[in-house]
Amino acid sequence: MTRVMLIIAGCLLLSACNNPSTKSEEDRFVDQLLSKMSLEEKIGQMNQYASHWEMTGPAPKNSSAQKRLEEIKNGDVGSMLNVAGAKATYEAQKLAVENSRLGIPLLFAYDVIHGYKTMTPIPLAEACAWDPEISKLASQLAAREASAAGLHWTFAPMMDVGRDARWGRVMEGCGEDPYLTSVLSVARVKGFEGNDLSKENSIAACAKHFAAYAFAEAGREYNTVDIGTYSLHNITLPPFKAVADAGVSTFMNSFNIINGTPSTANPYLQRELLKGDWDFDGFVVSDWASIKEIVIHGAAEDLKHAAELSLKAGSDMDMESNAYLPYLKELVQEGKVDEALIDDAVRRILKLKYRLGLFNDPYKYSNEEREKEIVYSNESKEQTRKIARHSMVLLKNQDHLLPLSKNAKSIAVIGPLANDKNSPLGNWRAQAIKNSAVSLLEGIKNAVNPTTEIKFAKGCDLAVSGRNFLNELVFANADAKEMDKAVAAAQESDLVIMALGEDSFQSGEGRSQTDIRLKGAQMELYNKIRKLNKKIVVVLMNGRPLAIPEIAESADAILETWFAGSEAGNAIADVLFGDFNPSGKLSMSFPFNVGQCPIYYNHMNTGRPTSAGNVFWSHYTDAPNDALFPFGYGLSYTKFEYGKASTDKEVYKMDESVKLKVKVKNTGKFAGEEVVQVYIQDQAATYVRPTKELKAFNKQNYQVGEEKEITFTLDQSDLGYYSPEGEFLFEAGLYHIYVGTNSKDVQKISLKFTE
Ligand code: BGC
Q1: Are 75 and 110 in contact (CB under 8 A)?
Q2: pLDDT tens, 539-594?
Q3: Beta-bridge mates of residue 474
Q4: Which residue's C-alpha comes closest to atom 11 of ligand 1?
Q5: Whose CA is nearest to atom 8 of ligand 1?
Q6: 216 forms bridges with which residues in the sheet?
Q7: Which of 335, 431, 567, 711, CA to CA, is 20 to 30 A from 493?
Q8: How wide is the angle at C-alpha 595 spanned by C-alphas 617 and 165, nearest 5°?
């Protein structure tokens, strides 16, 4: 029993502390503890530091590291990020628990975005599975490894709805659609948190970044956000509301301003909406140094002022601004902030520690044996291979070139990413071991018969330096000798598989681009190989949609594999050689060129959507309006035929639901999965609605020749929307329902709702 438990034990039964259903016990425990805490100790709980130093060794004298160690011992720190591993977390926990007056355990947080050591595909890829079970599985896998490494809390899921491929952080989210993002983020939260946070294999999740960070102007990282309240309520906020309703433990605010107010200092978002209307009982952590940045934005005089604004706005924990620890006490004493706000923040933080079972055993997650057994285990690798196969999207398959035969005589494997064991791990890779992914080349060699001759030539390099989390990438120039080798390998082979795309550190935080075509000498290499008139399968690896119209036009087959994680090469080979029939659907539109960004399927119609035979319509004179590959798009090795979709009525009363059905048949030669997608359009709304909005989907496996009737029910919550003031509206009038295999190829049904 920890010191803090001993203090409270007189009043409470120990067994009750672990039972999440006895909420009143939790409240009583937390209230009792709070009543024993000094103002300084409370403020300490609201302070989060990152670890940049060795917790177990002596810190350099008079260094900031030494100061921080003393602060941990003194109870001035409530949480740490970036301390990972059973041993390191144990040592750090000991400092807090054994030295501070009340022995309150630390909360260990980390960016476990798509895996801890075993990497699953990046979230943008995972979202292409359109499968909540897959998303849940991926987060369960991450939680199992992270919890075994002593962690309590992940800064995931990132659920910023992203429409602009220039913004590098689209790789971390679920793409451009609020509904898909909502469904999958809820699944991810469930995967991380399970049903009981005190279980040893679950960790707390964090919904981030609240809010509208992905709307950074022109896709430039950390840039100004100028989003109207109409888009805010209908596009950005719904996924956050969905995870708040699902009980996510924490939120993280965002770096950007909204309507001139930095999110960290935004009382409307954090207090009125999240903790008020949505009744969220968890806590809000600031983003890294975002309290400090309120001063830089120009919304506070100094750090003390920023601390005051943030606390009042509802930011409960200070990540690395060092603003709360030095200033909150003074602010209370000066009467500028009410201590009740501090009590509220601390109560929220202590509740999470209670729910995790940390007051019962602060070391429960720091178990080196469990860590050895679970982290990077064969079971994890098997699972990530499964998730990866489901995340891949077949973009083109001319004349059914894929799947390939494992008995092919000779295959050339070409491209800078073909034998790259690092890039498939993606960015935000937590504790992944550098160069540990199965490369495409390795995967192909594992899959084909020993008689198949594999010739590998990289053709060019992609990035020559900066291949890490911190630095700018420098791209390689063409190298004539390497190109020649690649041309020779292609010439001598029956078929070419080319791995092209991005370096893993090309997307992620701080990685905005104005050009989203293939970097370096990749197009030159592609064009050289293309001229040989060999069949070419392009395997894309990337963290954002790319502008690749020439490849879309001329390659025979294109498989989008994103950054597929630790087992990338094996999973890609599973798809290329037909052990798995691809079923992924794009979670984000691909543009023809960067000038179309932001491009998204759920746009408004405008007053001039079509040509009247002259230039005076909403279009570009040098590129189409449409996406190169639209949202929801993805092919299969088999063929699905849709019957005529129908609804149960044509006219509905306002309290009735629409029952929709459609028959889908696998008329091809392979068993496979299909995602049936349902979109709506409210044709006569008080506020103009998008031409299409995803409202439901259904993914099923179909045997060859199998037909299924797929049914959907759409009710008011699906058909309504938010006014610019955030009021939910469901209105009478004409609606169109669209059913199909992607956001473009759909059939339409019209119906009416009447008062
Ligand atoms: C990112 C967050 C992340 C935090 C901690 C920030 O720069 O915006 O998403 O969780 O760092 O690493």
Answers
A1: no
A2: 999 999 999 999 999 999 999 999 999 999 999 999 999 999 999 999 999 999 99
A3: 465
A4: 288
A5: 287
A6: 225
A7: 567
A8: 125
- Cβ(576)–Cβ(447) under 8 Å? yes
Taking only the tens place, the pLDDT of each residue in 129-167 is 999 999 999 999 999 999 999 999 999 999 999 999 999
| pLDDT value at residue 63 | 77
Cβ(426)–Cβ(114) below 8 Å: yes
Q: What is the CA 78 to chain-centroid distance, rounded?
A: 26
Going by pLDDT thresholds of 50, 70 and 90, the confidence category of residue 9 is very low
Ligand 1, atom 2, lies closest to the CA of 287
Give the catalytic positions in this structure.
287
pLDDT of residue 703 exceeding 60, the answer is yes
b/e burial code for range 447-466 (CB count within 10 A of at least 16 → b): bbeeebebbbbbbbbbbeee
Give residue-wise pLDDT tens across range 98-134.
Answer: 999 999 999 999 999 999 999 999 999 999 999 999 9
pLDDT higher than threshold 50 for residue 615? yes
Higher pLDDT, 24 or 255: 255
Residues with CB under 6 A from ligand 1: 81, 111, 155, 208, 287-288, 509
Cα–Cα separations (whole angstroms), residue 752 to 349, 652, 696, 722: 48, 6, 19, 20
- How many A from CA of 124 to the centre of ligand 1? 17
Q: pLDDT tens digits, residue range 413-469? A: 999 999 999 999 999 999 999 999 999 999 999 999 999 999 999 999 999 999 999
Q: Would you give the DSSP letter of residue 221? A: T
483 close to 459: Cβ distance less than 8 angstroms:
yes
Phi, psi of 490 (to 5 degrees): -65, -45
The neighbour count for residue 281, using CB atoms within 10 Å, is 14
Ligand 1 centre distance from Cα of residue 287 (Å): 6
DSSP bridge partners of 652: 753
Cα of first residue to Cα of last residue in the chain, in angstroms, is 62
Ligand 1 atom with the smallest distance to the CA of 206 is 10
Q: How far is the CA of 171 from the centre of ligand 1 (A)?
A: 14
Q: Of 288, 291, 429, 469, which is best to mutate to test ligand 1, by the most ligand atoms within 8 angstroms of its C-beta?
A: 288
pLDDT at position 65 is 83
**How many whole angstroms from 288 Cα to the centroid of ligand 1?**
6
Q: Which residue has the tokens 């790319």?
A: 546
- Return the best residue to mutate from 113, 155, 469 for the ligand 1 pocket (most ligand atoms within 8 A of CB): 155
Mean per-residue pLDDT of the chain:
96
Q: 10 Å Cβ neighbour count for 611?
A: 11
Strand partners, 538: 498, 558
Contact 541, 502 (CB under 8 A): yes
Nearest CA residue ID for atom 12, ligand 1? 111
